[in-house]
Specification:
The structure is a homotetramer.
Chain A (H helix, E strand, L loop, with lengths): L4 E6 L4 H12 L3 E6 L29 E4 L5 H11 L3 E4 L9 H8 L16 H4 L8 E3 L3 H16 L8 E7 L14 H4 L4 E2 L8 H12 L6 E7 L6 E8 L9 H8 L6 E3 L17 E9 L2 E8 L3 H16 L9
Parallel strand pairs in A: 1-2, 1-3, 3-4, 4-5, 6-8, 10-11
Antiparallel strand pairs in A: 6-9, 7-8, 9-12, 11-12
Amino acid sequence: MSEKIRVGVYGAAGYAGQDMVELLLKHPQVELVFATSSTSAGENVPYTNLRYIPAEDASLSEADLVVLALPHGASAVTAKEALDKGVRVIDLSADMRLDTPESYKEWYGLDHPHPELLEAPYGLPEINRDKLHNLDKVAVPGCYPTTTLLGLYPLLQMDVLDSTAPIIVDAKSGVTGAGRTPKANTHFVTVHDNLTPYKTGRKHRHVGEIEQEIAKITPTHGTLVFVPHLLPVSRGLMASIYVTLNHRITSDKVHSLYTNHYADEPLVKVLPLGVDAELRDAVLTNHCAISITPVTDNLVHITSVTDNLRKGTASQAIQCFNLMYGFEETLSLI
Amino acid sequence: MSEKIRVGVYGAAGYAGQDMVELLLKHPQVELVFATSSTSAGENVPYTNLRYIPAEDASLSEADLVVLALPHGASAVTAKEALDKGVRVIDLSADMRLDTPESYKEWYGLDHPHPELLEAPYGLPEINRDKLHNLDKVAVPGCYPTTTLLGLYPLLQMDVLDSTAPIIVDAKSGVTGAGRTPKANTHFVTVHDNLTPYKTGRKHRHVGEIEQEIAKITPTHGTLVFVPHLLPVSRGLMASIYVTLNHRITSDKVHSLYTNHYADEPLVKVLPLGVDAELRDAVLTNHCAISITPVTDNLVHITSVTDNLRKGTASQAIQCFNLMYGFEETLSLI
Amino acid sequence: MSEKIRVGVYGAAGYAGQDMVELLLKHPQVELVFATSSTSAGENVPYTNLRYIPAEDASLSEADLVVLALPHGASAVTAKEALDKGVRVIDLSADMRLDTPESYKEWYGLDHPHPELLEAPYGLPEINRDKLHNLDKVAVPGCYPTTTLLGLYPLLQMDVLDSTAPIIVDAKSGVTGAGRTPKANTHFVTVHDNLTPYKTGRKHRHVGEIEQEIAKITPTHGTLVFVPHLLPVSRGLMASIYVTLNHRITSDKVHSLYTNHYADEPLVKVLPLGVDAELRDAVLTNHCAISITPVTDNLVHITSVTDNLRKGTASQAIQCFNLMYGFEETLSLI
Amino acid sequence: MSEKIRVGVYGAAGYAGQDMVELLLKHPQVELVFATSSTSAGENVPYTNLRYIPAEDASLSEADLVVLALPHGASAVTAKEALDKGVRVIDLSADMRLDTPESYKEWYGLDHPHPELLEAPYGLPEINRDKLHNLDKVAVPGCYPTTTLLGLYPLLQMDVLDSTAPIIVDAKSGVTGAGRTPKANTHFVTVHDNLTPYKTGRKHRHVGEIEQEIAKITPTHGTLVFVPHLLPVSRGLMASIYVTLNHRITSDKVHSLYTNHYADEPLVKVLPLGVDAELRDAVLTNHCAISITPVTDNLVHITSVTDNLRKGTASQAIQCFNLMYGFEETLSLI
C-alpha cells in the first residue's frame, strides 16, 4: 500500500480553507500535516488534532503538496517558495489563473511577483482535463468562472453562439464568497432581507478570467456582460446565462447537446428539460447542476449552480489533486 | 370640507390586501368601510375596529369604491357587480390588465367572464397618467410589469432600443409575491437558503402583460426574455434588465436620459451613476429605484427595484385612487 | 462477510425520512430495499436508483427491519404488521414512546391501537443503552426530549436537583421540526424574521415524554416547564435549561460532573467552561453539544443543542440500529 | 403656533441613531438641526436634506435638545458639554442609567467621567412617568431592560413574586442590537442559520441595570438569571420570563392583573389569554406586546416583545421627549 500524500493548507481558517480541510480529511490518500491561519493561530482545526499555525511556522519540508487559500499577491510568493523546494502547489487564489502579467496587472492592479507561475494550467477538469495530469502546480478557477464556463462549455465547444451577440451572465452568490473578514457589506443586517448587485457590467475581476477561458475555446465570441449579486444565503452560486445561437443550431437541440456532452461527467448534472436548476441542487454537493430553457429559436437561457466552496473551489481542487497524482478523479468526491 | 370616500377591500387578508388596508388607513380622504376574507372572516382587521367579513356579506351600497385583491377570474365577477351598482373599482388582479379576451384566454386559460372590463386603463401613472383621471375602474399592473416597465420606459419612449435584440429581464421576487396560501413552494424549508427560477423564458403570465404595454410605446421591439426567481426574503422585487441600444444613442447617454425623464416623478428614484440599486432601496417604500450601468457602447444594464406589495401593488393603487378622485397623486404616499 | 441488513423506510420523503435514508445509505451494513411516500410516490429517492412507492405497495417480506417515519397513530398499525411478520421495527413516531395507553391517550388524544407496543424500550442510548441490545423494536425519542434529557441527565442521575424547584426548559427548534406539510405556520413569510413560542407551559406533547423519562431516573423531581419556540432556521434545536441544585452539590462542580459523565460518549460533546453551545455546534452533525454556566451557588444554566433531524431523530435511530444488531454503536456516525 | 424644538442627534448613522432620526422627522414639534457620524460624515441623512457631520462640527448653540446615540463613556462627555450650555439631553447610552459611579464602574469598567449625570431619571414612562416631566436630561433604558421590566412590572409592583426564587429571563435579540460596526459575531455567515447565547448567567451589563430598577420597586427580590441570545433576524427582542409567585396570588389571576394594569397604556399590549406574543407582534411598532401563560398554580411564563430599536430605544426616547416638553406622551407614536 502506498504512503499517503502529505498536504499542508495555507489560509485554512477562511471559508474556502475550511472546506478544503474538511474534504482533504475525507480523502483516503491524504495526510493533513499543517493548516495555517494568521487570525486563528492556536485554535483547534475542526475534526483534527492539529492547531492552526502562523504561515511562517509552517515547514514546507513536511509537505508533498500545499493548497494555498491565500489572498492574491500573497499566494504567488508562497507558491514560488514551495515549488522551489519541490513541493507541489494547488492555488485557490487568482495568482496563477491569468495567462499573462499584463492581464494580471489589468485586473488585480499589481505587478505579478513571479510571472513564471502564470504557465500553470487552469484547473477546470471538465474542460481542461488533458492538461492536468502529473503536474507540480495548478490554478483552481474562481467560483464564478467555474459555474459560468460549465454552463457555457458545450455551446462554446460546438461554436454555435452568435459571436455578435453578448453573453449575458446574471450571477448570484452566497456570502461565503465574500470572505470571512468582517466588513460593512457582509454585516448580517446589510445582507439579510436584501439582494445587492455589485461590480456590474464588466468591472468584476472574474470577467478577465472568464473571457480568457472562453477565448481559448471560441476565439471569436460575444462580449461578456457579467452582473454579480450578493444573495442572503451563506453558500451557493447561480449563474443565469442568456445567449444567442448562430445559424448552426436551434434552441430545441441545446438540451440534448448538454446531456450528451456531460453524459460521462460525474460532477456535472444536466437536469431534465422543464426542470430549472435551483440553488439547493448544488449546495453542500461536489457537483454543478445545469438546466436549459429554449426561449425562442435562437435564444437560450441556462441556469448553472454550484456550491461556491465546493465545485466552485475545494471539490474542484480535490479533482485537480487526484489528477495530479493519478488517482481516480472523483476519489472521495462521490 | 368634503366627505371621505368610502372604500371596501375584497381579499383584504392576503399580503396585497393587508398592505392595501394599511395604506388606505393612512389616507386622509378614505374611510374603510369593510374588508372581506374567506379564510380570516371574524378576525380583527389590524389597526382597525373592523372584522373581516365573508365577501358575500359585504354591502356594495356602503362603498363608493372597492379594491379587489382577489384571484383572477373571481375578481372580474365582483368588479362587474360593483360597477353595475355605480361603485368604482380598483382591481389588483389580472382581470382588467390585458386588452383582449383572446390575450386573457392565452395567458390565463379562461374565457373572460366580462370582456367589457378589459377597456379599463392600465394603472401605471408614470406611463399612463393622462388616462387615469376621474375613472370608474382601473387595472393596477402586476409587480413584475411595474418594475420592468419603469426600468425600460425612457428607452422605449425614445425608441432607442435595437428592435432585433432581445429584452432580457432576470427578475427576483420576495415570497409575498407568491401569495399567502400555504404551498410546498412557499414552505420555509423550501425557500430558505435557496434561490429558485420558475416559469423561465416566456412562460410566466406577466410576459403577456409586459409585452402588451411595451408594444403600446414601441410597436417594433425585441423579444422579451423573462426569468423570474423566488428569493429567500419576504418583500421586494428586482428586475435586472439587459438591453441593446440602436444607433440613435450610446450607452453613456442613458443615465442622463433617465434622470431627466424621471426628474419630476416623486415615486421613481434614479440612483447616481456608479451606485447600484439594491433590494433594500425599495422595500417598505412607495417608490421604484433604478440604477443604470453602461456596459459597452450599445449594451446597458438596468436594475429596477420596488416593494412588490407597495409600488408593485398597493401604493400604485393609491396613486390611481388619487388620480380617480382628483387628489394630489402622491397624497398619503410621500 | 455477513450479508447486509435489508431496511425499508416508511414516510421516507418527510424531513426525518429523508435524513434517515441519507444516513442508511452511508451505513456499510445496510441495504435500502424500499422507501414509501404517499405524496412523492413515483419520484426518485435522492442518491439512489429507487423510487418512492405507496406504503401499500411495500413488501414487508423483503425487509429485515423497517424504520417508521409516519404520523402517530398510523405508525403503530404498520409496526404491528411488521412485527407480526418477524420484521424488526425502529419507530420515529410517538407510538411506542409512552409507557401506558393512558398516557398515550392523555397526550395524543387517541386510544392506542396496539398497547402491547408500548413495552418497546426508549431508544436514547446514552441513558438507556443496556436495554437496547438485540431487540425487535425500539421507540426513538423525539427531538425535544433527546436534547433536554441529555442536557439534564448527569444532574438527574446524581439526584442533585432541588425537587421542589421547577425544571425550566426554554426550547427553540428549526422549521423541519414542524414537518413538510405546508401550513400557515410554516409559510416562509410567517416564519422568516420572526420567533414564535407555541404550546407554552405544559401543553406540548413532549412534556409527557420528558417527564416520564425524568421520573425513571429521579422519581422525585420538580415540575417541568417547557416553552418551545419556532426559529427562522431549517435545522437545529436548542434546549436552554434552568435548574436549581439541592444541598448535595454546588454549581461550580457541575461542569466537571458533565465532562466526567460524558467522557466516553462519542456523540455528546461537553464544551469548555465559558464557551456557550450555539446552534451551529450541532447542525448537520450526529452529536449533542452541551455547555454549562454556573449562575449562583445553586442555579445552573445548561444549553443543549442537537440537529433535530440527526441526533434528534435519524442519527439516534442509527445508534439504536447498531445496538439492535450488535454493531459498533457509532458505526457510520463518526 | 409654537416654534419647533430644534434637535440634534449624535451617532445618527448607527442603527439606533437611524431610527431616532426617522422618528424625529415624523414628529410635528421637532426640527432636526444636525446629525453627527464619524464614519458617515458627508453622506446624506436619509429622508432629509442634511448631511452627516463629524461630532466636532456640531454646534450645540443651534439645538434646544440633543439625542446621544454614542458609545458609553463618550456619551457622558457630550452630555456634560450640552447641559453646561443649557441644551437638554436624551441619552440612549448607558452613561446615565446606573445610579452610582460604583455600579457604573462595576458593569462598564470605567470611572464615570461626570458622576453628577447619574441623577438623571430612568426614562421608562410606564414605570417612571411621574419623574419625567419638564426635565433637562433623561437616561433612556436599554432594550433588554425595557422589555424585561415591562414584562415583570405588574408582578413587581404588587409584590407577588416569591423573593426566594430566581427571576429567569431567556432573552433573544435581533442583530441590530449588536451595533453597526462589522465584527466576527455579526458577519452574515456567523449569524445566519444559527442561534447564539452570550454573556450567559449574570455577565451581561444589563443585569446591573435591570436589578437596580427591580430593586426600586421590590427591594426584596429573587436573583436575576439572564441569558441573552443572538437571533438570525435584524430587529426585535423577546424576553421569555419564568417566575414563581408567592402565596398572595395564584397564576390564574396574573393575566387579568396585567390587562388591568396596562389598560390605559397605549404602548403596551397585553394579548388575550392563550395567544403567545411572537416577535412580529412588535417589530416595526412602537409598543411592547406581552403574553401570559399560567403554568402551575405558582409558576408563570411571560413573553414580552419589543422592537429593540423602537420601544427598546428610539420610540421610548420620543415618549421621554414628549414628557420633557409637556406634549402628549404618544405624540407621533400612535
